[in-house]
Each structure stands twice: as C-alpha cells, then as structure tokens.
Amino acid sequence: MQTTDAARFPRAARPAARPAAYPPAHPSARRPGFVLTYSPTVVVGFLCLLGAALLPMLGSKGALVFLLAGAGLIAMRPGATIAAMGRNWLIVALALWCLCSFTWSDYPGVTVRYGVQLLLTVMIGITLADRLPPAIFVKLVLVAQLMASLASFATGRSRGDGGGYLGIYASKNALAAASGILVIAAVAVLFDRRATRLWRVLALAGLAAGGMLLLMAKSTGAILAVGGTVGVFGLLYVLRRLDGPVRLAVVALATLLVAVVTVILTGMFDELSQAFLSATGKDLTLTGRTELWATAFGEIARHPFAGTGYQAFWVVGNQLAEQLWAEFGIETRTGFNFHNTLISNAVEIGLIGITIQAVLFYGALWAMLSWTIRSPGAGSIFFALFMVRQFVLMQVELVFFFQFDFSSIITIVAICHAAGFRQAARAVDRMPRAAYGRAGRAGSFAAAAGRGNRPSWPASIHAPSSNQWPRARRPIRRDG
Fold it and tell me: H or E segment at 276?
C-alpha cells in the first residue's frame, strides 16, 4: 500500500484551506484582470528604507516618511517589536546612553533632540531586522539605493572646484558611501543562486550605476574600501569550499602574509607616501586628520568616560569647533568630524559609549563573516561585505551611529542578525552528528536559524533557506 506524505511526515502541516478572498482555483472561473501578490510588511519596510535613502534630497520629508513607515511597521505587531528589543538589549542600551548624556552635555537641548531621534532609529532598525528576512532586506536596499542613484544622476550637481560629483548629497564622500552600499547589494544579489532573472538584471543595473557614481565622486577612501571589500569576498568564497583544518591553515597563512607585507611597506613609507600624494593629491596627513585627532584626544582627556554629550561637540557656538571649522575652511559649519569613528564617538559619548559600540560592531563583524562561510546567500553575503566596508571606512570616516542615517540603519540590522546567527550556530553545534539527517550540517544550521514563529521542521524533511534566516515570519500575502 502506498503511503501519503502526511503519513510519512506527521509533523508536516497539511495545506490550509484556501480563503474565500483568494481567486477560484479553476482557471476558467478566475476574475479577469491583473492579479498582484504583495506583502504589507515588505511594502512598509521598503517605504521606510526609501525615506532614509532619499533623505539627502527630501530632507525633513524623507525623515517623516522613514518615521511614519517605521511606526506603521511597529504598530503591525508591537509585541514582537518589544520582544526583539529585549533580545537586542545592548544596542538599545547604547541608544539610551546617548540620550541620557544630556544630563552632562555641554548642549543638553541638542543632545536630547538627537538622542530621541537615535532611539527611534534603533527601534525601527530592530523592527526591520525582526520582520524582514535577510534576502528580502538586501533586495529592498538594492531598489531603494538604485532609486537614489538615479536621482543623483538626474541632478547633475558637482563640486565647483571639480573635486568630484555630488548628486543629491552634500559631499562627495556621502555620495561615494551610498554608491558603495549599492555596489555591495548588487554583488550579493548576483552571487545568490536563488535570485531570479529580474533581480539579476536589477543587480547588474545597480552595479553599473554604483560603480559609475563611485568613480565620479573621486573619493579615494571609498574606492579603497570597496576594493578591499571585494578582496575579502574572494577570500570568503575560497574558505567556504575548504574543510575546517585546511580553512584554519589558510587563515593563518593569510594573516602571516599580511603581517610580512605590512613590515615591508613600513620600510618603504617615504616612497609610498610620495606616490600616494602624486596619485591622489592628498597631503601626507590625510587632509589634516592627524591635527584633528590631536584635538580629539585632548577632548577625550578632559571627559574620558562620559564625553561631552551625544552630538554636542560640532555645535555652532562651541569655541573649539568654531576654530576647527575656520582652520579647515568649513564655511557651512556642518558635516565635519574627526575622521575616525571611534575617536569621534569617544569625544561625544566617552570610553563607556565606544566600548559598547566596539562590542556590538566587532561581534557583528565576526558573526557575519562566519555566517557567510557556513551558509552563503544574498543576506549573508551582503551583511558580511557591508560590515567589512564599515570596518575599513571607520578608520578614516564617521560611519555610525546617526539618526535616520541609511548606513547606520543597516548596521543596526546587521547587529540584530548577528545575534540571531550566534544563537542558531550554538543550537546546531550542540546537535549530535547523527541528527543532521540527509540535509547535513548546513541544512540543520538553516533549519535552526529559521526558527522563530516558524514550525520546527526536521532537517531531513524541510530546511528553510539561508535567505529566510534568522527570524523569518510567515509571509503575509494578499491577492486582488
């Protein structure tokens, strides 16, 4: 006697009855016209990201779109948002620390305003991570950033001195940073085996647009960051094909090679410095960064643990900030920083604040690299490349954490997914080898990582893909 699938796999849920709102199954009985299937969560999440991506062009209107869409996303399932904030309590604590710094801030009104906005940004970022599967998130980032790049092409704005293209952004570095995100998202989608032809075409368009804008911006740091990110991706692609002992040996040899090259380059510093100066037109102190850092270290020495207050240094009226603006010719007195993320943030939120930031960021960086090696997909590739890019840029730029900032939002989402990865990896590592079933260790990892509100399918029956990791919810679909 032939057994049914339900008899062989009793844990597999039987298909739910088709709701009355769906079109009849028989083709001849279907309603005429175009049928659109969509997810309200994805639509609202996209509006949220689009508002942040177009913020340089829309200003306060873009921030309003981001906040309204984020509030709508939270209102759909407020209990789930509260639970997600509990799971990611450390980043919430960081936002609260920034807000509470108004009690000792040199400009308490400024700190309260931006601290509240940062807290709202963190809440929405955590909600995006909880509601959107990673593969869906990276596709939304691709489309939102592609639309922003098209808007940049349409404006035709460039610097008056010919120093680079601006687009919709206030500086060439901001344009280069946004273009780098577009390139990374496009690469992640292109290397995703599950991507459809339409998404591959969009990814190719994003890669072309992002690459063109990156070159037009003439930002040396951003170009080097993207180049280094692509190099790391190549290393990850090789490592995932190797066994554990061989992988460890390759990592050790790569580390030794980097150390040897560093020693050699150190002995050639003068020659390389002159070559860098001739090729880029930069000065040997990287646009005066060493002078800025000396000033920053002086401020850190004055307020070592608590800082001057969140975003309470670069304020009009602050005597030291005014001197630096005048010295470096910043007539707008905006958009300037100490050109190093941890140094800049240490000035504002002290050593306590940057310690929390370092734990969050470096923990997420390591988790994303491990996730890509163990279970590559659009989401894992994107977050790994993005965090590597952040690591490179944070040495010479200020990359997190800001209110309503697109890059900061992605960083928050990456930190949340890193926590989910570590939980899933521990669950799989505790499983006995015999429990892997036909799907193997990778399939069991995907199944464990896919848990949330999803049923706990045995790995040999069904394993949610890595694109659905880590807390993918049941899709909300509507037809008509």
Answer: helix 269-280
pLDDT digits (tens, 9 = 90+) for 439-457: 455 555 555 544 333 322 2
Residue percentage of the chain with pLDDT more than 90 = 45
3-state helix, strand, coil in the chain (%, to 5): 70, 0, 30
Beta bridge partners of 478: 38
Closest listed residue to residue 472, CA positions, set 100, 135, 91: 135
**DSSP secondary structure, 225-275, as one string:** HHHHHHHHHHHHHHHTTS-HHHHHHHHHHHHHHHHHHHHHHHHTHHHHHHH
Q: Quote the distance between the C-alpha of residue 460 and its chain's center.
A: 33
Phi/psi for 264 (5° steps) reads: -65, -45
Q: Is the pLDDT of residue 8 over 80?
A: no
Token couple for 338 = 């100490």
CA-to-CA distance for 281 and 283, rounded, in angstroms? 7
Q: In the predicted model, is pLDDT for residue 52 greater than 50?
A: yes
Peptide bond into 470 cis (omega under 30): yes
Does the pTM exceed 0.85?
A: no
User: Counting beta carbons within 10 angstroms of the beta carbon of residue 102, is it exposed (0 to 12), middle (13 to 18) or buried (19 or more)?
Assistant: buried
What is d(CA 216, CA 228) in angstroms, rounded to the nearest whole number?
Answer: 19
Q: Which CA distances in Å does 170 have to 49, 166, 176, 281?
A: 19, 7, 11, 21
Instruction: Give the three-state DSSP class for 216.
Output: helix
Q: Residue 479 has which token pair?
A: 């037809």
- For tokens 């050639």, name the residue: 268
Which band of pLDDT confidence, cut at 50, 70 and 90, is reported for residue 382?
very high
Nearest alpha-carbon partner for 413 in 52, 170, 6: 52
Identify the sign of the CA torsion 45, 49, 50, 55. Answer: positive
